[in-house]
Amino acid sequence: MKLVVTTQERDLAASLRELFATHCPPELVRALREPGGERVPEKLWASLVAAEVLALPFGEDVGGAGGTLDDLAVVYAEAGRALCPTVVLSTLHLGLAVAALGSAEQQSRVLTPLCRGELRGAVALASPYDAADVRPTLRAERIGGDRVAVSGRLDHVLDADLADRVLATATLTTYGEPDRLVGVLLDPRAPGLTLTALPTSDSDRLQQLDLDHVVVPAADVLTGPEGAGLATDGVRRVALLVRALQCVDMAAGADAVLERTVAHVRGREQFGRAIASFQAAQHLVADVHIAVRAARLAARSAVFWHGRGRPAVRETAVAVLRAATAYRRATLDGHQLHGGMGYVVETDLHLWSERARLLGALGGGPDVAAGWLEEEIARG
Questions:
Q1: Half-sphere exposure of 127 (CA within 13 A, CB side)
Q2: Which range (115-119, 170-174, 223-227, 233-237) has the least confidence?
Q3: Fewest CB atoms within 10 A around its CB: which of 20, 84, 245, 343?
Q4: Nearest-angstrom CA–CA distance, 45 and 283
């Protein structure tokens, strides 16, 4: 893995940090949480489209910018620091999944408008409780004209209510043939599909999708090479890539919390001295600093190896262990050093705490990741 940041990555990070500082300040993040408020900030969305963020990892043949996953990791780091609305990242997840699993025609039809900011998306490729578990919960059956009808339930899907398309997997049953794993591009507003908001601490961004004989046209069914179905390993690879990118988001968010906390303890005085001069405070900050640096390295390593075609299960497991733990620790100790006995809402710090809770659990937390690592070690 490369450890030196390239000039291109440094310039990309600087331009994105300026963009988010202008169009995604904490005031906007707080406003997005208000009931009935704007969920997709149009100015921020337009700025990201103009900066080719949504097009970054995709090929030029579909209107993309031809970037790499390393470049995309820079985007996730700056997005995590600024608490960029998750719908931006969910849309990128849809693009990555279609790029990996879809046919050339499906890639062109989905990725071209996505790169132009004209299509928003979400994915439900794995269990929300375990990103390595890609067993589908939906069942599909063929109906006339190669269309399929899909039924079942998807649980805890991030940003499904804001998406134009949600990519999920289903077991396709055809009489006289073995069951196949297929992808289905769902329209959340299609007849037979019901969305139910699942309350979360920072607004209802998670949705439950109940499908009752939802008709999906043949063009929106991802059937893999020669129609034989998707490979389970391929789906799992995409699901783990998404989890690795979320780890970059978490590590960067923890770093932002650390910076805010250091600034606070340097400026706040107790007993006539800055609290940064107290040894107890210094120890807390030093421990968080070490945890954040380890998390950032682990997360970037996981994305690096995904970008080189490795399944990167071990690296992703370590990234989840490091990033989820560091983000939780940074926010908890941050609240304490801001003077809170538990949870402080008088500052913006709780905005990062809520992101830490969401990303720390969605797809499996450190305990689940430890299981992936144990299985990998057992395989040798």
A1: 9
A2: 223-227
A3: 343
A4: 40
Residue 271 has pLDDT above 90, yes or no: no
Q: Are 133 and 127 in contact (CB under 8 A)?
A: yes
- How many whole angstroms separate alpha carbon 157 and alpha carbon 195? 10
pLDDT of residue 249: 98
Return the sign of the alpha-carbon dihedral for residues 288, 78, 268, 341. Answer: negative
272 Cβ contact list (under 8 Å, min separation 6) = none
Q: Read off the pLDDT of each residue in 2-11 and give the average, rounded to a whole number.
A: 83
**What single letter denotes the amino acid at residue 86?**
T
**β-pair type (180-186, 221-222):** antiparallel
Residue 32 has a pLDDT of 86
pTM of the model: 0.95
Single out the residue of 115, 330, 364 nearest to residue 242, CA to CA. Answer: 364
Task: Give the separation between CA 337 and CA 193, rounded to whole angstroms.
Answer: 46
Q: Are 332 and 346 in contact (CB under 8 A)?
A: no
Count Cα neighbours of 162 within 13 Å in the Cβ-side half-sphere. Answer: 21
Q: Which of 100, 109, 104 is nearest to 239 (CA)?
A: 100
Element (H, E) at 242: helix 232-267
Residue 349 has, within 13 A of its CA and on its CB side, a CA count of 29
Residue labelled with tokens 């940064």: 276
Angstrom distances, CA of residue 186 to CA of 78, 168, 211, 218: 30, 7, 10, 12
Can you give the pLDDT at residue 107?
97
